[in-house]
Amino acid sequence: MTRIFTLTAALLAAALGSAAQTPAPPRPAGAIFYPGAVAAADPMAPDLRRPADLTVAGRSVQYSWNPQTSRWQGGFLTTSTYNALGQPIKRVDSDSLTNTPISQSLLAYDAQGRLSEVVAQNWDGTAHVNYSRAQYGYDAQGYRTLDVYSTWQNNAWVMRTGTRITTTYNAAGTLTSETYEDWQQPTNTWVPSGRYRHLVNAATNQWTASEYDYWDVPTSTYINDYHMYNITWYNWPKRQASYYEEQHRNGSTGAWYHDARTTVAYQANGSYTGILQVADVPGVWVNDTRYTTTYDQYGNTLQLQIEGWANNDWYINIGQRSLLSYTPDGLVRRAVRQAHNRANGSFDNVQLETYGNFITLASRQATALAAAAALYPNPTTNSATLTLKGVRDQGPVQVDILNALGQPVQVLTVRPQQGTISQELSLAALPTGLYLVRLKLAEGTVTKRLVRQ
């Protein structure tokens, strides 16, 4: 039987709706050891990344495939409203034929543009009424430290489940520990559940290993249960590892077992393939699982796939793919989602989604501030200094460094001092090429080009 190990294929299996076969500790808030592990309601939905930064789809229609009639059926219309930064703030779902409302979602963001709340409301025939609410919190470095789910009951929100994380950092700002607590509704209290302890290389300030301890209720102590070690980083700022090893600890004997190692190969556009190997006999590594994620040139997901190893060959265990069609400007206008059929080896239709009513939002480029912004030296080899005067913002300002595909590779938070921003940007861990430095200000967005040689 194919085994799915912690932080590798287990997380992709969970994202695709397949249950992991063994319990797994929570993923570290600051670690994306397996890049495809980010949870999503629909992991195959295109991110709709686009070359025009603030062009978004105003509506989409979703259909399901009927295998008996071999036709698309239904019609679920979603109309979206966005803020000036291109983030959705309202999504209304309705029947595409009758326009009868079904539900809507209201989204809110914090000052740094991070998702902070999603309120789901259902249509009761006359109005949208509250149903559920998800809330998110972050620490000063931007790691998510709060995840709370509530339902609407007797005209008030009642918290049902939640996880909160206490983080610590070293003097250089690298995450060193995460302590998890879970919300217990019967007692309405937070109770410990586990913690991660990250070992940091003093020279590189990067993790070399991570230890996980679970909370043992009878003894009210943390017990070491799992560790990841010999970590090699492909991209430390994005927490993408190219190699790591894992073990679990036997609670009775204290011995380590279930030796596993993962090697991940990345492509220039972010696509990657990871191979998990196990060693039931020490030192004898055997293929176990291969996981693949493929993106198009804009960063939209084309394929997610988990393969098992049997009879000296790989076979598809779980597979999903999207067949995308584009507008002349490179915007996704149609996505056919298919799932792998293990019985006959084909990919069968599951869902069709079309996108339209594209909106080019006011770019809100703060032209006066853009003229005052400076990046030097430019080109640079390792670092550059960003300066900007005349900033009205008093609170934190988000600074994004984007690659040529428009994907964020670094996100920083800076605080203006007497209306001036001065921040050193480190590009030492990034490959050579063209980058965009984007500031999100109350006056608008400031974008500057930066070249690393």
How is this structure best described in words?
- By secondary structure, the chain is mainly beta.
- The protein has two domains: 352 residues, no CATH class; 86 residues, Immunoglobulin-like (Sandwich), CATH 2.60.40.
- It has two helices and 27 strands.
- The protein has a 20-stranded antiparallel beta barrel. A four-stranded antiparallel beta sheet has the order 24-23-26-27. A three-stranded antiparallel beta sheet has the order 21-22-25.
- A hairpin with a 4-residue loop joins β5 and β6.
- The termini are far apart.
- The N terminus is likely disordered.
Characteristics:
453 residues; mainly beta; Immunoglobulin-like; 20-stranded antiparallel β-barrel; four-stranded antiparallel beta sheet; 2 helices; 27 strands; 3% helix; globular; disordered N terminus
